[in-house]
Specification:
Elements (H helix, E strand, L loop, with lengths): L7 H18 L10 H9 L9 E5 L5 H10 L2 E6 L2 H13 L5 E5 L12 E7 L10 H11 E12 L5 E4 L7 E4 L3 H5 L4 E10 L12 E9 L11
Parallel strand pairs: 1-2, 1-4, 2-3, 4-5
Antiparallel strand pairs: 5-9, 6-7, 8-9
The protein binds S-adenosylmethionine (SAM).
Length: about 230
């Protein structure tokens, strides 16, 4: 695993907070309730089901969401997460269930060990809000690099009306950075917003309280974002 200029928040997740997150939450990972965003994503991409052959989840923990998506699309999948415990347990679970087309590995969003254009669908589920701000554009560039032109990018994350940061409940010196992450891709002109669904942590409905909002954004990576200007 190559991690360049790792800064503090990433370091904290690699050296234990990723494992802590996994230990705190693993008992809930199997709940149907946890699949709302993935169900919406499958529905939104149902017309493209046959095209989606390779899926990557960045910040996958033990890969339950990745497994769900890959089952729906009949795709192979890769997942990456700083937690070595989640990756180990996830790979054991996948191998027990005979899912030989899925593999998880330890790593972080800012430096992905995958080939250019390797995936048809790249998924960030509650991951970008934890990425160090000085690694955010590296994470965006890496997701863009490994996504095929003509592929889809999906992001589910906090979506408040005003961008803000707050201390992460579980660990000192870690912040949760809440903002509409899909906007960063759309602003480039290289991505088109196919669909956005807004809901909340407490239910499958739009929250009037902006601090409660989360959303799923589905983006299409334009194969060529430029029209050709004539030779006038
Ligand atoms: C809130 S959990 C979400 C896990 C899973 N995607 C889900 O939705 O159930 C955030 C995950 O991101 C991982 N993470 C934290 N920093 C990361 C980074 N810089 N790159 C990739 N993953 C990271 C954590 O280890 C953790 O598994």
């Amino acid at each position: 695993m190559k991690i360049t200029n790792r800064s503090s928040q990433t370091e904290i997740f690699v050296t234990g907070e990723g494992d802590n997150y996994y230990e705190r939450n693993k008992s809930a990972f199997g709940n149907e309730e946890q699949r709302h965003a993935e169900k919406l994503l499958c529905e939104a991409l149902s017309s493209f089901r046959a095209e989606i052959k390779g899926v990557l989840e960045i910040g996958c923990s033990s890969g339950m969401k990745l497994e769900y998506l890959c089952k729906y699309f009949g795709a192979s999948g890769k997942g990456i997460d700083p937690s070595s415990k989640a990756v180990r347990d996830g790979n054991e679970r996948l191998s027990r269930s005979g899912a030989t087309n899925l593999a998880l590995q330890v790593g972080t969003a800012d430096s992905l060990p995958y080939k250019d254009g390797e995936f048809d669908l790249v998924y960030f589920a509650f991951c970008l809000y934890l990425v160090d701000r000085d690694k955010l554009f590296a994470a965006i560039a890496e997701a863009d690099r490994v996504l095929k032109p003509g592929g889809f990018l999906a992001i589910v994350d906090f979506d408040p009306a005003q961008r803000h940061k707050r201390s992460y409940h579980h660990r000192e010196n870690v912040f949760s950075y809440k903002q509409p992450y899909a906007d960063l891709f759309v602003a480039s002109g290289h991505y088109y917003l196919v669909a956005k669904s807004s809901f909340s942590h407490s239910g499958h409905y739009f929250a009037k309280d902006s601090d409660e909002r989360v959303s799923l954004g589905l983006l299409y990576k334009e194969p060529d974002a430029y029209w050709v200007k004539g030779s006038e």
